[in-house]
Amino acid sequence: MARCYFCYQRKYNLNTIKIRVECNFKSGLLVHMDDTKHFVFILVDEFSHIAFSCAVEPLRIANLVSGKDLYKWSYVSEDGVSAACSNGSVTLVHHSYGDIPKSDRLFVLSGINVHKKVSGKLLATLRRERVRGTALGALCSGAHIFAKAGFLDGVQAAIHWEFHDSFMEEFPEVALVRNVFVADEKFITASGGTATADLMLHLIENAHGHDLAVAVADQMVYNAVRDATAEQRVSLQSRHGMRNPHMAKAIQRMNDTLDAPISPALIAEEIGISARQLERLFGKYLNCSPKKYYVEMRLERARNLLVQTDRSITDIALACGFESPGHFSRVYRANFGVSPSLQQGKLT
């Protein structure tokens, strides 16, 4: 039996890592040392194109770098013809919900307006695949669909950070985390965007080793691969270039009490500084008062709930710590230049 070796080099300063992927040939034909894994992606209309690319491209590159067909993939939509992503691009698909082939993993990928895209047919399809024994995963806002199906009760899950507010309100029984992905639960979830690439590289590493995962990441020019414990958003300290522990504690306390706001003076007392010190810190690092920043946090949460859910304005006002819908509407219009009723369902 003849053998060939594919060599891939990665250089860091004076160090060279050499990756050797061995391929076997017999009678001039490639013999696969491992069975090809089949991944199926259900594309829900308005799905995220960046998450889609970050899901499929690592698989393609793994085949390219290894010289073997480690993976194959196919796409599914409700009509079995095509699916449109949020940027308007249309992707042709291989199957409809009714003729999904047997696969090693099935992912549901959605994007914006997910609460309007959950159909009875989709939920029935996912439940059928679960009974079939297919390993299931959700990408970007797909965890919302899994939660609707009842898959995530009592387990950890990840979803894009923009959906956190609405998700926690609708599915309090799910242990939502801010991690980029969750891969150690029965149903794996990734928060979307480049986090989908992190998940795929994790799966590639588990199946075929660290060297191949590194080679794939290099081909993607992706040198900041994250593990599951990484948080989605850049920390407040990094975003504003600050390292003040009192600021971090104050803002965390605000975030924990958006539905029942407390006074900045009480926050200052809880973190062990004076109200005047707190005022000075917010002026120095954020160029605003603690009260103004607190209100902006509550309004941002309200905006997410208006855009992502069908809840009433009264419910949203109360969930964001406003005493009445009228007061909420006035503050919201003053901040965003549009009323809550016009904002509902629209991302402006």
UniProtKB/TrEMBL annotation:
Segments forming domain HTH araC/xylS-type: 248-346
InterPro entries attached to this UniProt entry: Class_I_gatase-like (IPR029062), DJ-1/PfpI (IPR002818), Homeodomain-like_sf (IPR009057), HTH_AraC (IPR018060), HTH_AraC-typ_CS (IPR018062), INH-QAR (IPR052158), Tscrpt_reg_AraC-type_HTH (IPR020449)
PROSITE patterns per record: HTH_ARAC_FAMILY_1, HTH_ARAC_FAMILY_2
One Pfam family per UniProt: HTH_18
Alphabetical keyword list: DNA-binding, Transcription, Transcription regulation
Taxonomic superkingdom: Bacteria
Gene Ontology MF annotations: DNA-binding transcription factor activity; sequence-specific DNA binding
Descriptive protein name: Transcriptional regulator, AraC family with amidase-like domain
Lineage per the UniProt record: Bacteria, Pseudomonadati, Pseudomonadota, Alphaproteobacteria, Rhodobacterales
